[in-house]
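Async update (no meeting this week)

Hi team, since we skipped the sync, here's where things stand on the single-chain job. The sequence we agreed to prioritize is pasted below, unchanged from the tracker. I ran it this morning and attached the output directly underneath so nobody has to dig for it. Comments welcome in thread, and please keep replies under the output.
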Amino acid sequence: MREQHVEETVEVAVPVRTAYNQWTQFKTFPRFSAVVQEVEQIRPTVTAWTIGYGPLRHRFAVEIVEQDPDAYLVWRGLEQNPSHQGEVEFRPVAGAGGTAATAVTVRMFLEPRGGARLLTRSSGATRLTARLVRGELLNFKRFIEGLGQEGGAWRSTIRNGRVQHDHPEPPRSRVAQWPVG
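Output:
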């Protein structure tokens, strides 16, 4: 079994908050991506992605297991073949002329199983995955720099696959219309 580790970084000429906010708008990925056809939000921490070229399509679910606004998000694929997980990190850097810029780093770990192992035996498969990730990051760079600002934001923190609420919900009765206390 050949595991693939891929890490690619691109610098975008927007502040961290802008880059992070746009990245978390998963439904906009098809607007700039060469491979993402559709993203559907299933739950706050689970999305279904359809990727492919032409008639070749693959749909899979992803769960965000950790997320810190303006810093990073970590995901894992919910399907078994191939198994994958990854993270995207956002770091402030000085851009041209001292302007605010962001280094966006994507790290992915893929573990092909079953028949997919045969297709990924060579190091060429890892290079192809790295080239694909780099291309998608460059597409994101052109997209966000062209916009100049985010088209929305999702700013919650996620720990162990659960959204952390800033304001805890008040206690509720388990019986509808029954007062608490």
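Quick observations from my side:
The mean pLDDT is 85.
The longest strand covers residues 56-68.
Reply here if anything looks off.
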